[in-house]
Write a structure and sequence with these properties.
The chain is α+β, with helices and mostly antiparallel strands. It has three domains: 318 residues, no CATH class; 111 residues, no CATH class; 57 residues, Arc Repressor Mutant, subunit A (Orthogonal Bundle), CATH 1.10.10. 40% of the residues lie in helices and 17% in strands. It has a nine-stranded mixed beta sheet with strand order 2-5-6-9-1-10-11-12-13. A hairpin with a 6-residue loop joins strand 12 and strand 13. Helix 5 runs antiparallel to helix 6, helix 12 packs across helix 13 and helix 13 packs antiparallel against helix 14. Bound molecules: adenosine-5'-diphosphate (ADP), magnesium ion (MG) and zinc ion. The site of zinc ion has 8 residues, from loops.
């Protein structure tokens, strides 16, 4: 905020807003342009900063454990609490994971680099500085290729650097969980000092209307690459993958505009929505000649738009300097070469291979990848389902549900093993499609495995002929004209009788058994 806005009163947000031209305030109430209109007149440039929490057993600069969900402030020590005299020691596993990420993103690995102190005060940061990297990142100058609508886009990687996570603040006593209205604020330092890797892209121009989709595809690809390395569980909903989305607009032929940085983007879908809504919002401002402020904005999950946060600090505000308590990092060349040789199959190559195995089109594979379903389907097949069966559930019912509830597919509530078990029940004729969907609903609601849900909800195909004969006889008695046709050899007419039986058995009858019974009763088989 310093340098752009004079410091006057206590609330930063009010102050920033009150210093803006009144047209900005007015603009928010006038009609917004459509997205198509916006991208027909302005060219977006995007840039993504992604934080990945590494899954190391211990923290980056001390031996504290990193278990998720532990009692607050039980995984802390003098080093990660920043107590006087405590000295950090780097965790080799954190450095190794960062180098592997860099290599997987086609980066050059520095032969010598240092950590830096990034100074700022915030209650969740006990040391009053973050141990990070500044002008000497561990990995630089890479790229990631992503595919959207069958076309490849290369996203340049500026740098991949290592830093540490902060603690977590908890504001209690208020309705919203935010600091406003809270009676107390609590801090949990368990997360402070967990290794974080920050991956920063170069600015990406030239995407036009596809900018939001490419941004999403990039984060998905990055997630898949990092997951394949096994260095993080990269769960956006749990915060182990966090993304800040930078967006700017310029008129064709003009210089790039001022960017805004949107934080709190907690799902792949939100990455896309955040870019899209920023393009619309910035267009509405530029259209009336209002300049864009470089600021941090917060993505609103409920509305899909962004709200102003703080104005952006500049590097000088952080007073970076080389960390004097840690030795420089000088990775041995032979070690780096070893790590490079041992990288796993690239997710994009893996997708090409699985596409062959599953016998699906490139477009279908792309939807599978975009839905984050590659591994889920792969694991479902490994658990015994056919490729078509596995894909059907993840890309059908479960994808629809994930979409509706706004969660990632992996967090939708069904496991690959459960989906495979469900498909097996269908293959064995114990469930038909309709019933299977109801069973899946129970699984997702947390009622247990498919067999348990089937039993508890009393779902299951009735193919026991004794139980069905009564329903068949009733259907025949109620539809004498149709029955007569079937008796006369018009077998196709039996369909209506099957339908009637399905109706009285609330869909639980096995259609084939019913049909056989009808034909038998009417002497047409
Ligand atoms: P900071 O820490 O200040 O956010 P970084 O260098 O970490 O700065 O990240 C800046 C991000 O913004 C990068 O991903 C970069 O590519 C992107 N960026 C830079 N200029 C623009 C621009 N004009 N429009 C959109 N994105 C931009
Ligand atoms: Mg940054
Ligand atoms: Zn510690």
């Amino acid at each position: 905020m310093r340098g752009t806005v004079p410091v006057r009163c206590t609330s930063r947000v009010t102050e920033i807003l009150s210093d803006r031209p009144t047209s900005l305030v007015r603009m928010t109430t006038t009609a917004l342009p459509t997205y198509e209109d916006a991208v027909s007149r302005y060219e977006p440039v995007i840039g993504l900063e992604t934080h990945v929490e590494l899954g190391t057993a211990t923290k980056m600069f001390c031996g504290c454990r990193t278990d998720f969900g532990a009692e607050p402030n039980t995984q802390v020590c003098p080093v990660c609490l920043g107590l006087p005299g405590a000295l950090p020691v780097a965790n080799r596993a954190g450095i190794e994971a960062t180098i592997r990420i860099g290599l997987a993103l086609n980066c050059d690995i520095a032969e010598w680099c240092r950590m830096a102190r990034k100074n700022y005060f915030y209650p969740d940061m006990p040391k009053n500085f973050q141990t990070s990297q500044y002008d000497e990142p561990l990995c630089v100058d890479g790229y990631v290729d992503v595919e959207v609508d069958g076309k490849q886009y290369r996203i340049g990687i500026e740098r991949v650097h290592l830093e540490e996570d902060t603690g977590k603040s908890l504001h209690v006593g208020g309705a919203t969980g935010r600091i406003h209205g809270a009676t107390e604020s609590l801090v949990d330092y368990n997360r402070a000092g967990i290794p974080l890797v920050e991956i920063v892209t170069k600015p990406v121009p030239g995407l036009g209307a596809l900018a939001p989709e490419v941004a999403k595809a990039y984060v998905a690809e990055l997630r898949d690459i990092i997951r394949s390395l096994g260095v993080s569980d990269v769960r956006m909903e749990q915060g182990s993958l966090r993304c800040d989305v930078n967006t700017s607009l310029n008129k064709p032929g003009e210089e790039w505009g001022t960017r805004t940085e949107t934080k709190n983007v907690n799902s792949l879908r939100s990455v896309e929505r955040a870019v899209r809504s920023e393009i619309i919002r910035q267009t509405s401002l530029l259209d009336v000649g209002t300049r864009i402020f470089q600021e941090t904005r917060h993505f609103q999950e409920t509305t899909g738009d962004t709200r102003s946060g703080r104005s952006k600090e500049t590097a000088t505000d952080y007073r970076y300097f080389p960390e004097p308590d840690l030795v420089p990092i000088a990775p041995d060349k032979a070690w780096v070469a070893e790590l490079k040789a041992a990288l796993p199959e690239k997710p994009s190559s893996k997708r090409a291979r699985l596409r062959e195995d599953w016998g699906i089109s490139a477009t279908d594979m792309e939807s599978v990848a975009n839905a984050g379903a590659v591994e889920l389907i792969e694991e479902t097949i490994a658990a015994g389902a056919s490729p078509a069966g596995a894909r059907k559930w993840w890309m059908g019912e479960l994808a629809r549900r994930a979409n509706e509830t706004g969660v990632e597919l992996a967090a939708v509530g069904a496991t690959p093993a459960q989906v495979a078990a469900l498909q097996k029940l269908v293959d064995e004729g114990k469930l038909n499609d309709k019933l299977a969907r109801q069973v899946l609903e129970g699984v997702v609601e947390g009622e247990g495995d498919p067999a348990a849900v089937m039993a508890a909800r009393g779902l299951g195909v009735v193919s026991d002929t004794g139980a069905l004969t009564k329903a068949v006889d009733e259907a025949i008695a109620a539809n004498p004209d149709i029955a007569a046709k079937v008796r006369d050899g018009k077998v196709a007419a039996a369909g209506a009788l099957v339908g009637a039986v399905m109706k009285t058995t609330r869909g639980q009858a096995d259609a084939k058994t019913v049909r056989d019974l009808i034909l038998e009763r009417l002497g047409a088989s």
